[in-house]
Task: structure prediction
Amino acid sequence: MRAIASDAELERWVAATHVAFHVGRSAAEEAAFRRDVLHQDPRRTLAALDGDAVAGTLYSFPAELSLPGGTRLLADAVSAASVLPTHRRRGLLTRMLTADLHAARERGEVASILIPAEYPIYGRFGFGPATERADYAIDTHAAEFTRAAPGEIELVEPARLRELAPPIFDRFRRERPGQIDRDPPNWDTRLGLVQAPWADPKRTIRCLVYCVPGGDVEGYAIYRAEPSSERHVPRVKLEVAELMAVSAEAYLGLWRFCCEVDLMARVTANMRCVDEPFVWLLANPRAALQQTVRTDMLWLRPLDVPHTLSARRYACEGRILLDVADPLGLCGGRFVLQGGPDGATCRVTDAAPDLKMGMHALGAITLGGVSLRVLADAGLIEEHSPGALMAAERLFRWPVAPWCSTFF
Result:
């Protein structure tokens, strides 16, 4: 197992991911795209080799992860972890992922994050599901809004949104736990300004912004339309690819526009937050809105427990002693956490713990979206001091649900 060393190896690396993830496109085209457009770092592109053949793959990159309270930390974002079906159960993924986690810790990346293709794999490496995603479907004929937004909607070209969207997204993601930053190639491919090998060139995107009276832009949306009809009646479906707003008025205005576009019968939005206020904007959400999917999304694993826990803010003042078991022996131990809304400290201790948990559970609760009480009921957290569990519940839980809107 080592980092790739040539363009030819990168193409073989991509071809292996295509076999593992059942993809049918050109490996040469995607390898060139990853090298020349995404600037994939070959030093962080790991390959498990069988002779000259690539049998396993893993890639990671640095990401700024938003935490509760508007703070951030540097994370190791893991992607493209795969093993060929002919080489399963030989420990290849374990060797690649363990090597990446050790290297990330040495680089000063204090946590690792990933979006798993399969649920059961990553808990044994200390990752826990820290955010959820939800998919929604809206019947536009039943979507009556209770009020209008005061601003205006403006349709813009993707090149113009490329200028307007990143500052809005940055404002939003810095205050929402679970979000990560986006580099310029991400924006270029997201808006179709550079064609990604996995994108469908036949699907046109439309872009719009919400402007408050006076002209300031406070939100944007990207959507695609899928024309269809039934008995000569238009039944077009609008897919919201992204909708971001930094004010309640912009949020309302953008959603209302998407639901009131002519000829639309259905609006869908995938990979959204689980606590969308959208339901409260409708006169009859029972008839208009359906949550079609709710599942785990971003998984997190601390690589430096004191740094990770002291970087975030907490809902109330509190002190808790934790005993954390690490299956990889990277950063477990006993820690005393003192935290509150204005800051936190966390340090190693040898005192008796109030709570015991595995790294899997600690990763799940780090972003404030998972209940410690629920994890205790599932046997993943042990209470050693009476009342410590509910005190830690009040401390860790955050009023804003964590959400990762960037797939990687």
